[in-house]
Design a protein that fits this description.
This is GH18 domain-containing protein. InterPro entries: Chitinase_II/V-like_cat (IPR011583), Chitinase_insertion_sf (IPR029070), GH (IPR017853), Glyco_hydro18_cat (IPR001223), Glyco_hydro_18_chit_AS (IPR001579), Glycosyl_Hydrlase_18 (IPR050314). Keywords: Carbohydrate metabolism, Chitin degradation, Glycosidase, Hydrolase, Polysaccharide degradation, Signal. It catalyses: Random endo-hydrolysis of N-acetyl-beta-D-glucosaminide (1->4)-beta-linkages in chitin and chitodextrins. Residues 1-23 form the signal peptide. The chain has 491 residues and is α/β, with parallel strands linked by helices. The chain has helices at residues 4-14, 36-39, 71-80, 98-103, 105-122, 149-167, 195-200, 237-246, 304-309, 352-364, 382-392, 409-412, and strands spanning 26-32, 49-57, 63-64, 84-90, 126-130, 174-179, 185-186, 189-190, 203-206, 254-259, 261-266, 301-303, 323-328, 333-338, 345-348, 369-373, 394-395, 447-448, 456-461, 464-469, 475-476. It has an 8-stranded parallel β-barrel with strand order 1-2-4-5-6-9-10-16, surrounded by 5 helices. A 5-stranded antiparallel beta sheet has the order 12-11-15-14-13. A 3-stranded antiparallel beta sheet has the order 18-19-20, with helices on one face. Helix 1 packs across helix 8 and helix 10 runs parallel beside helix 11 (382-392). The protein binds 2-acetamido-2-deoxy-beta-D-glucopyranose (3 copies). The site of one 2-acetamido-2-deoxy-beta-D-glucopyranose has 5 residues, from loops.
Length: 491
């Protein structure tokens, strides 16, 4: 395991890297085949890539598709919206045989042939492999091989890249991966160097969620930007991005994954009594989430569209009377607690504001864009628009999700492992490259240096002003030079 102090040290080194600015940002939406009906109403123009999920291989390598799914009509919908359509292999319950398939030459080549056949038949733009997870158990039924999965996967991807490029010479196909918060495991710990993988695939989509949930021993955010100061679990959005970059994956080939759902858990006490800490005692009880959470044991999932549609959230940041919304300045995530006596229901989720802060962080790290699980869970485009908002601050050509002159990993990475991390207002950190040393509130996000003329603007990131740049050839948009959400402070 990489220690946090190693990550912090490596994070400092990253300051010297020039971010990639060449391409437009990408927005990758997963399209669950069992949600085809809901997907019909999703505005896929908001996405650049849509991954149809999932197909799974048998041991033989034969790819099995959901028979009731109309692939042709889905691909048409995606292409009509101007997005690329990929087929995603695996997923949580479809990864059972991948370890075997990539280790066995005849199964491996069968899977490749089946894939190529599907790409041809449906005019797909590529394949996404969501193996959960190389070198680790994942779902209980999965086979895995702690020593060989990761090297086998590398070898398999080498063959896949060569053959897919040879077969589709005139119309290059994409190969992408969905990956966990830590690089692929070898012998029980994350690989230190995954740079060879990045040379074979186009993008890795980081699944930066499901970090806390009903399965854990405490309540806690589904997707904290930074680890909670009071948490045992130090997994976070920022630590996961650092882990992949430190293991040699170029940031311009990574996307930051966002969950368009939250999770309900059953606390044991009134959490409002200690609202500065989101990690509190909970029961093991699996409580029901939204109207779609009908199968027991319940998942506790609350899709954004149901948090909004069922009226728990009356706007993106106001609640029905039965609930109170809290803002956690450490993990920079909102959470809800039920007001009724003895109800004790806690819901962690992301909203437009927490997404914007994560997007700013991801762009400061030079990532290529965002990934979403899943596109059907949005409400009137609120969350995908929050992703794209960052992009909309810049105008005139290439765009780019990226570029900065150094928002301070020095203040983002917890120094000793026990320090609070994210928002520091105690003046203990120096500003780092470009920013002044004065503290600011994350609620005030944006000032444009010379709207319509210059690319530079300022955001408040981790409690410090950070100088950002629109990418090459673009300028900061005129008008609306400040974007104040008014709730950067803790409740
Ligand atoms: C794995 O392969 C076995 C044997 O071919 C098959 O029965 C099983 O359904 C496959 N698992 C998945 C998740 O497709
Ligand atoms: C808590 O309140 C919610 C909504 O008000 C309700 O659906 C849920 O059943 C309640 N839970 C308990 C344990 O009372
Ligand atoms: C909710 O967001 C709006 C618009 O961004 C803002 O004006 C308002 O102050 C926020 N309300 C709360 C309770 O945070």
């Amino acid at each position: 395991m990489l220690s946090l102090s190693t990550l912090a040290a490596a994070g400092l080194l990253l300051l010297g890297l020039a971010p990639q600015v060449s391409a437009d940002p990408i927005f990758v939406g997963y399209y669950p085949t069992w949600k085809a009906k809901e997907m019909k109403t999703v505005d896929l123009k908001k996405y650049t890539h849509v991954n149809i999920a999932f197909a799974a291989p048998l041991e033989s390598g034969a790819i099995v598709l959901d028979k009731s799914f109309d692939m042709a009509s889905a691909v048409k919908q995606i292409h009509d919206a101007g997005a690329k359509a990929l087929l995603s292999i695996g997923g949580w319950s479809g990864s059972q045989n991948i370890s075997y398939v990539v280790s066995n030459p005849s199964s491996g080549s069968r899977m490749m042939n089946d894939l190529f056949g599907l790409i041809e038949k449906h005019s797909l733009d590529g394949v996404d492999i969501d193996w959960e997870h190389p070198g680790r158990q994942g779902a209980p039924q999965n086979r895995y091989d702690a020593a060989h999965d990761t090297p086998n996967f590398l070898e398999y991807l080498g063959t896949l890249r060569a053959q897919i490029d040879a077969k589709f010479k005139k119309n290059r196909k994409l190969v992408t991966l969905a990956v966990a918060t830590q690089p692929f495991y070898v012998d029980g710990s994350p690989a230190k160097d995954v740079s060879k993988f990045a040379k074979l695939v186009d993008y890795a989509h980081l699944m930066l969620y499901d970090m806390n949930g009903p399965w854990g021993s405490t309540t806690g955010p589904n997707a904290p930007l930074d680890p909670g100061h009071c948490a045992n679990n130090k997994e976070s959005f920022s630590a996961a991005i650092d882990a992949w970059i430190c293991a040699g994956w170029p940031p311009g080939q990574l996307t930051a994954g966002f969950a368009f759902y939250g999770r309900a858990m059953a606390a044991t006490l009134d959490m409002s009594q200690k609202s500065s800490c989101q990690y509190q005692d909970k029961t093991k009880e699996a409580i029901k989430g939204d109207v779609d959470d009908t199968v027991t044991p319940y998942s506790g999932m609350w899709q954004w569209k149901h948090l909004r549609g069922q009226g728990i959230l009356t706007t993106t940041n106001t609640t029905d009377r039965a609930w109170k919304r809290y803002w956690d300045t450490t993990t920079t995530t909102p959470w809800l607690f039920n007001n009724s006596p003895n109800n004790l229901t806690y819901i962690s989720y992301d909203d437009t504001f927490s997404i914007l802060l994560k997007v700013l962080h991801a762009s400061s790290r030079g990532l290529a864009g965002a990934m979403v699980w899943s596109a059907d869970m949005d409400y009137r485009n609120e969350l995908i628009d929050a992703q794209r908002q960052r992009q909309q601050r810049c105008h005139g050509g290439g765009g780019g999700y990226v570029t900065n002159d150094g928002p301070k990993p020095s203040s983002s990475a917890p120094a000793g492992g026990s320090s609070p991390g994210a928002v520091t207002t105690d003046g203990g950190e120096s500003g780092g490259g470009g920013g002044s040393s004065s503290a600011c509130t994350n609620g005030v996000l944006y000032t444009c240096d010379k709207p319509g003329v210059e690319p530079g603007y300022t955001v408040c990131l981790y409690g410090r002003p950070a100088n950002m740049q629109c990418s090459a050839g673009t300028v900061c948009i005129a008008g609306g030079s400040s974007l104040s959400y008014g709730y950067g402070k803790g409740s």
